Amino acid sequence: MASTSDIRKGLCIKYNNDIYKIVEFLHVKPGKGPAFVRTKLKSVSSGKVLDNTFSAGHKIDEVKVETNKFQFLYRENSNFHFMNSKDFNQISFDDKLIEYPQLLKEGEIVNILINTEDGLPLSLEMPSSVFLRVTHTEPGIKGNTATNATKPAKIETGADVKVPLFINEGDLIKIDTEKCIYLERVKE
Question: What is the pTM of this model?
Answer without folding.
Answer: 0.71
